[in-house]
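so my prof wants the structure for this chain in the tokens format not the other one, which i didnt know existed until like an hour ago. anyway here's the sequence
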Amino acid sequence: MTTLLKNKFAVLILFIVLGCLLLVSLLIPKDKHIENYLSAEKVEELRHEYPIYNKDPDFLSTRPLAFEEIMGGVDSIVIGYIDEMLPSYQISLPLVGESDKAIYEKNKALGFDQKDEFIQRKLKVEKLVAGAPVNDEVILSLNAMFKDIEPQFKTGMKILIALEKGNYMHEGKHFFSRYGTYYIVEENYVLPAYEKVDYDSKKLTGASLDQLITTIQSVRED
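here's what i got, hopefully its the right format
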């Protein structure tokens, strides 16, 4: 075979290979093209609508819960949509000792009632990711004193959230925290509600939803 023929043959093979690659890329389902992470620019843009809650309360010393702690220990982890704001409710705080009772009586005489207020949101559940099954609609409960510390969801937001079942005076409700809350954005990506450079959730900022679910399942025993 002459040099000219060899060169023509090589060019032909190259075109055949490129054509096959193009055909394969067109046949692969669209979701296979999803990148593992959103770009830093896109994350920054989305953060205006999906803010980070890194502030700690002034009145309480807290320790961030590690990913394994929160996702491995909660009752249920679900994906759903924030539906609507519900009326808040109040509960009377338990009087543990004599000092509590004395303070209560004093406050009562002054016209103060020893109660805590709780904010409620309705979550329409779309999928159970891990843990115990829940109803199609879940009531999210949050102590009002943490309203600026924990996520303030907007109606229509899609989230992945770790839930703890309430009991006694909170029967029928579920508690949550910023450590176990992830906004679902751009259909298939997630942004953690709590994010610090040295915290586990930072690694999942802008990750795909599938990647987050796989990571959750790796720390669950159920």
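also thought this was worth mentioning. Residues 124 and 193 are 19 Å apart (CA to CA).
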